[in-house]
Design a protein that fits this description.
79% helix; 13 helices; mainly alpha
Length: 346
């Protein structure tokens, strides 16, 4: 089958997956939209503006990483690309691989180094996780001080911490030696593929590509190492990402006239975001809506208010960006996102 036809089929799969995802969770979406109608309209509009800034911040984070790797990119080009990457990660979840493929496809279309674009997308996922872990640490302290930390939150935190530590160790190995990084990646790939075989699923990782990926990553790390700013700026944008989401949560408390403290906001946000990441469902759909209200109740928020705040917060931070991402994906596809490099197009 010709490559352009394969790409069109992949695009159709993503679009059908998006439509199916929304139809399956339509009742949840309806409940969250209904919750929005019961809040202060002006504050909800302000929260929508903050959510729009989240996407701009994502684009700035991508730009900082691209620039550190020697790839010049416009923020205006990256804004729709970041939105589309978030959308495809939700409707076609594959541990972030979907967004990596999207960025690699765009790099190929524009005649840029595909390997560096792939590494940039990988670094974005790493910084995104590290930024959240810093905020999560504050949230865990709040939950411990209020004696509300339960087993599910401990298990989810442990899982996420294991992933974060693993990624940091891999970065440290890459800074020292491409061979050490390759060896570690190969071991992880074999473990992942054994797990896939046990689950009777196709291999998660192509072990043959481990060598080239390790070489590219080590080279990228050495290039970033030349300036500390290259490491710190993406982390700053990742932290800003969380601050903006926290601002949305504060606005929801204000919109529904619910008293709160700094500890309530940090703890509630940490619980919600934690189960967005560590969840058996895409972006924590259904799980966050169930557990976040319970977490807020444990932080002395009345159940009714906790439920409405959670539904409104999710409508703004999940469903609205999902819609924007769908539109961005459609727009980029219409412009020929998936196709030959620009030099080969008529």
């Amino acid at each position: 089958m010709p490559a352009p036809m394969i790409r069109r089929i992949l695009i159709l799969i993503v679009l059908f997956a998006g439509a199916g995802f929304i139809s399956l969770h339509f009742s949840s979406l309806s409940a969250e939209l209904a919750a929005l109608g019961r809040g202060d309209f002006e504050l909800i509009l302000l929260a929508l503006g903050v959510v729009a800034l989240v996407n701009v911040n994502m684009a700035l984070s991508y730009k900082a990483i691209f620039n550190a790797l020697g790839i010049e990119e416009s923020v205006w080009r990256l804004i729709p690309l970041a939105a589309a990457a978030s959308f495809i990660n939700i409707v076609a979840p594959s541990v972030g691989a979907s967004s990596v493929a999207l960025l690699a496809s765009e790099a190929h279309r524009r005649g840029q180094p595909v390997g560096r674009a792939t590494i940039a997308a990988t670094f974005y996922m790493l910084y995104d996780l590290l930024g959240f872990m810093l905020v999560l640490a504050l949230g865990i302290i709040v939950l411990i001080r209020r004696n509300t930390l339960d087993a599910s939150e401990i298990a989810a935190t442990f899982t996420l911490s294991t992933v974060a530590v693993t990624l940091v160790v891999l970065m440290a190995l890459g800074l020292k030696s491409a061979e050490r990084l390759e060896s570690a990646l190969l071991r992880l790939a074999r473990i992942a593929n054994r797990l896939a075989a046990w689950l009777r699923r196709p291999a998660f990782v192509d072990e043959k590509r481990t060598h080239s990926f390790a070489q590219d990553m080590a080279e990228a790390l050495l290039q970033m190492r030349s300036r500390k700013r290259n490491f710190l700026l993406p982390l700053l944008f990742s932290l800003t990402h969380r601050v903006l989401f926290i601002a949305v949560l504060v606005l929801m408390f204000l919109a529904f006239t619910t008293p709160f403290s700094a500890g309530t906001i940090i703890g509630g946000f940490s619980i919600g975001y934690l189960f967005t990441v560590v969840s058996p469902t895409p972006a924590g759909i259904g799980v966050v809506e169930t557990l976040m209200p319970l977490g807020l109740v444990s932080l002395n928020v009345p159940l009714g208010r906790a439920t409405v705040i959670t539904l409104a917060y999710r409508a703004l931070t999940f469903w609205f960006p999902l819609l924007i991402g769908f539109v961005a994906f459609q727009t980029l596809h219409g412009r020929g996102l998936v196709g030959a490099p620009e030099s080969e197009q008529v």
